Amino acid sequence: KQEVTQIPAALSVPEGENLVLNCSFTDSAIYNLQWFRQDPGKGLTSLLLIQSSQREQTSGRLNASLDKSSGRSTLYIAASQPGDSATYLCAVQAGTALIFGKGTTLSVSS
Amino acid sequence: DADVTQTPRNRITKTGKRIMLECSQTKGHDRMYWYRQDPGLGLRLIYYSFDVKDINKGEISDGYSVSRQAQAKFSLSLESAIPNQTALYFCATSDARTSPNVLTFGAGSRLTVL
C-alpha cells in the first residue's frame, strides 16, 4: 500500500529564508507527484507536477525535485515571504487516485 | 464563478441525520472525486467516478454513498451521520483526455456532526 510522508509537520522561518519541504513515498511505481498549497478554509491549489520521467519542475521561486528510485521529493522555496504561509501537501498518483501526505504547515514571519 | 462548486460550505448536523453534499463543475471534466480531510491525516479518497455510469469506492467508502446525476454533478450522501464523519470534504475533477491527470479542487464543505 502506497504511503506518503511529509517532514516536517510544521515549520516557522523568518522572511527571506530559503527552505526545503520533504516528501517520501513507499512505492516507486508512480505516474507523477504533485505539490499543492492549501490556505486556511480554502481548497487546494496545484503548485507543481512532476511526471515520473522527470527530475524536477520549476515555477517562479518554487522548485520541486523527484527521485523515484529513493522515493523522495523536495519542494524548495527561495526567498520566502509571509504570503507563502500555508499548508503544503505532497501527493503521488499511482493508479486512479492521488495519495496524499499529511502536509507541512509553513509560517513565514515578517 | 468557481470551476468546481461545493454546497453547502458549512453544515452542522446531529447524529443519525441524513446529509447530502453537492458538487457541480463547469470544466467539462469527465472524472469526479470526493475526498475527506481530517486534521493530521491528510486527504483520503471516499469515492470516484470516471463517467456518469461509473462509480468506484475509494479508501474509506464505508458510511457514504454517491450519485453521479450528470457529467457535471456528483453528490456525496451520509445516510446516518455519526460524529467521526466530522471533517472537511473536498470534491475534485479531472479530464481523462489530458495527461498528466491534474485534479481541480473545490473550496471544501466543512461538516460537523454533533
Give the helices and strands, then pairings.
The complex is a heterodimer of chains A (110) and B (114).
Chain A: E1 4-7, E2 10-14, E3 19-25, E4 32-38, E5 44-51, E6 56-59, E7 62-67, E8 72-77, E9 86-94, E10 97-100, E11 104-109
Chain B: E1 4-7, E2 10-13, E3 19-25, E4 31-38, E5 42-51, E6 54-57, E7 65-70, E8 73-78, E9 87-94, E10 104-105, E11 109-113
Parallel strand pairs in B: 2-11
Antiparallel strand pairs in B: 1-3, 3-8, 4-5, 4-9, 5-6, 7-8, 9-10, 9-11
Structure notes:
The complex is a heterodimer of chains A (110) and B (114). In chain A, strands 2, 4, 5, 9, 10 and 11 form a six-stranded mixed beta sheet that branches. In chain A, 0% of the residues lie in helices and 60% in strands. In chain A, strand 6 and strand 7 (62-67) form a beta hairpin. Chain A is globular. Chain A is mostly beta strands. Chain B is mainly beta and 114 residues long. In chain B, the strands form two sheets. In chain B, strands 2, 4, 5, 6, 9, 10 and 11 form a seven-stranded mixed beta sheet that branches. Chain B has a four-stranded antiparallel beta sheet with strand order 1-3-8-7, with no helix packed on it. In chain B, strand 5 (42-51) and strand 6 form a beta hairpin. Chain B starts with a strand and ends with a strand. The model of chain B has no long low-confidence stretch (mean pLDDT 93). Classes of the chains: A mainly beta (110), B mainly beta (114). The interface between A and B is medium-sized, with 22 and 24 residues.
